[in-house]
Amino acid sequence: MVFIPFFILCASILSILGVFLQVQVYAAPVFRNSTDDTIIVSRDDSYLDMTQYLSAHNTIRALHGASLLTWSEDLAAGAQTWADACNFKHSDGVLSEVPYGENLAAATGGEFDINAAVESFMGDEESYDPSSPTFSDFTQIVWKNTTIVGCAYNTQCGNIFPTSSGMATLHVCLYNPPGNVVGEAEYVSFSFYELKANLAFHHNFFLTLCGVSTSFLLVQASVFFDLRFVK
Fold first, then answer.
1. Pick from 170, 115, 121, 114: which is nearest to 141 by CA?
2. Centroid of chain to Cα 27
3. N or C: which end of the chain has fewer CB within 10 A?
4. Alpha helices per DSSP H over 64-159
5. CA–CA gap between residue 57 and residue 68 (Å, rounded)
C-alpha cells in the first residue's frame, strides 16, 4: 500500500480544483465562408464586428455547455440586407437559401453596441424553466445544434420607433442550423454557474480540512472568479 503524505494529498486536490475554478471562455477570431469553407482573415471594421459578435455569443454558449460558433459570411450578408432595410420583424426565411434562426434587437437613446444587443437577446434566460421549456432569443443563442452565425447592424433606422425617439440601432443575427426546433435539446441543463458553485464548495471543504482558513479562499476567489454565480 502506497502512503501519500496528507499535505501532498491536500495540495494535489486543491490544485486540481483551482484549475477548474480558473476556467476562462473566449472566441477564436476566425470565420468561414459557408460555401467553400475557406478561412477568412481581415483587419477592417467588419472583422472587429465579427469578433465581437462571436465573442459575445460564444462566451454565453460556453457557460451553457454548447460548442463555439463560427462565422458565416453568407448569413452575415443576409443579416446586413435586413438591417439596411430597417426591418424590425422576422424575415421568415427570405434572406438565405439555407434554413436559419433569427434574433433581432433595436434601441434608441444612446450607444447600443454589439455586446448590448447580444445581452438583450439573453433577457429570457432568468425565466427559462428546463422542466417546461419555451423558445426565445436566449434558447437560439445556446442551441446545441447551431454551429454558425452571421450578424449585422444599422445605426440609422428612423422608422422603428416614433420619430421623437431619434434614430435607432438595429442588430440582426442569423443562425444555422436553426434553433428552437420542437423535440430537440436546447442546451446542457447543468450550467457553468452550477459547476462553479459546486467546485467552490468542494474547494472550501478541502481548504478547511487541510487547515487553511476560509478567508484565504475568499481572497483567492475574488481574484480568480466572480462569486456572483447568478444575476
1. 121
2. 9
3. N
4. 73-84, 114-121, 137-141
5. 8
In the chain, DSSP assigns E strands to 31-32, 39-40, 70-71, 101-107, 148-157, 168-176
Grid cell 464586428 in the structure block, residue: 49
Task: Please tell me the distance from the alpha carbon of residue 121 to that of residue 104, in angstroms, as a whole number.
Answer: 8
pLDDT tens string, the chain, 231 residues long: the values are: 555 555 555 555 545 444 333 333 222 233 334 444 444 444 467 899 999 999 999 999 999 889 999 999 999 999 999 999 999 999 999 999 999 999 999 999 878 999 999 999 998 888 787 777 788 999 999 999 999 999 999 999 999 999 878 899 999 999 999 998 877 655 544 444 455 555 555 555 555 555 544 444 443 444 343 333 332
In DSSP notation, 86-102 reads T--S--TT-S-SS--EE
Contact 154, 83 (CB under 8 A): yes
